[in-house]
Amino acid sequence: MGKEARKETAQDLAALVPEADLLGKIPIGYVRKHLLLPCRDADGTLVILSGRPDSTNALDEIRFLTGPATVLSAPEDIILGKIDTAYERQHAPEREIVEGLSGEWDFDVEAAIEETRDLLESPDEGPVIKFVHSLIFRAIQERSSDIHVEPFEKELVVRHRIDGILYPMVTPPRKWHAPVLSRIKVMANLDIGERRLPQDGRIRIRLGGKEIDIRVSVVPTAFGERAVLRILDRSNLLLGLEDIGLAPNELASLQRLLGRPNGILLVTGPTGSGKTTTLYGALQTLDSGAKNIITIEDPVEYQVHGVGQIQVNPKIHLTFAGGLRSILRQDPDIIMVGEIRDSETAVIAIQASLTGHLVLSTLHTNDSASAVTRLVDMGIEPFLVASSLSAVIAQRLVRKLCPDCRVPYDPSPAQWREMGLAGSPSGQFFRAGGCPSCMNTGYRGRVGIFEILIVDERLRALILERSDSEGIKKFGVSRGMRTILSAGAEKVCAGITSAEEVLRVTQED
What we know:
Blueprint: H1 10-15, E1 17-18, H2 20-23, H3 28-34, E2 36-40, E3 46-50, H4 56-66, E4 70-73, H5 76-89, H6 109-115, H7 125-141, E5 144-151, E6 156-162, E7 165-170, H8 177-187, E8 199-207, E9 210-221, E10 224-233, H9 234-237, H10 248-258, E11 263-268, H11 275-285, E12 293-297, E13 308-311, H12 320-328, E14 334-337, H13 343-354, E15 358-363, H14 368-377, H15 382-388, E16 389-401, E17 407-409, H16 413-418, E18 429-431, E19 443-454, H17 457-464, H18 469-478, H19 484-493, H20 499-506
Parallel strand pairs: 3-4, 11-15, 11-16, 12-13, 12-14, 14-15
Antiparallel strand pairs: 1-2, 2-3, 5-6, 5-10, 6-7, 8-9, 9-10, 16-19, 17-18
Helix pairs in contact: 7-8, 12-13, 13-15, 14-18, 15-17, 19-20
């Protein structure tokens, strides 16, 4: 094709769509410098937008990737606008997203630039700051819970966790690693000179009127430090118990348990299963005006009005066990222990429950029955477990199908049975589709599925007999306990989630 560019109308140029498959192969800096952008017209024909007819060498290099293509001339402002929009969608790292964003952030940008001037040699400081801002801005926009910044031998990979799943977002040049990590450290008040030891910090920002806390963890790896930024949106976490996915009878049971004056209520599940959200929901249902409620957490993620919250700090020997002992001298009615990690904490929590306190805590086990045997395995006498434990809630989080694009289908008999459902298939399931409102994942948001094991006299007898977890689970089911799989199957039949999603989070059980 000739290199002479045809003149196009503004309407014709607006109809051109940047060629997404090629954008990942061409750096944004290159197309900006030479004002060249591969696009498709309405007929699907490949064209190259050009703002500089004299860019012959650059045009030949682009054609090496595109093959034969028509060249169209366009004004510089139109090409730059299309480049910015196209690479923003591609999550290009050099994209200077959110112009003027610094005014929304709760830190002094100029001071930060001055403080890290010697570390920001390549690339220059402006793009690095805007890049880090754009990562956080985009993560909040897309409901991400975590940002992972991971260095490898030849690249730097940034991934976002959305609804529990990690998605690759950008792959900046490897040379961006040191300045990006330094910028994150400055924002989190960490030691930018320390690269050999793990560090933890916190960033607090305001964005669009929202208060956002970001918990930062930096650890050294073989290829340099990696950072994980946990985004804690205060407006999103504090859900009530009625909002987390409990069935009406489960909600009523949990509210009765929270009305008891003493005993231990355990919430179990793997990391990221929503245990903390459930505990905060429970705290909000309790009358903090009439009760003295104290928590010890690691870390304190959200402040709950009327509740005294203590942060674990191993550096000054403030552990769960030590903090729990101090709490007992504060005349508490209700105690929340972020996690029972060892037998010492477990013993103190049990003693607190036996002396007239309601204790809420979490434990890492796969199901509710395993929590009972786990306490015994930690060295707690079975009679102490039996006399103190009120109930165990096991839970998982499943992604909710996007209501705009979910696809109905008739399940096969095998899939029906795999979900633990009896008889022949008698209803529709839904599978994930994909649309712009869910970023083509087919899912939007998450909801909990629960299994509540209530400890009654007969179950206490089994605990005293040192029954294994399988025996305890069978007994719970015989007494009407709904398993996590059954709770998931109910949400599948209701079209809330997919069978694949429920099996994904329950397959280890």
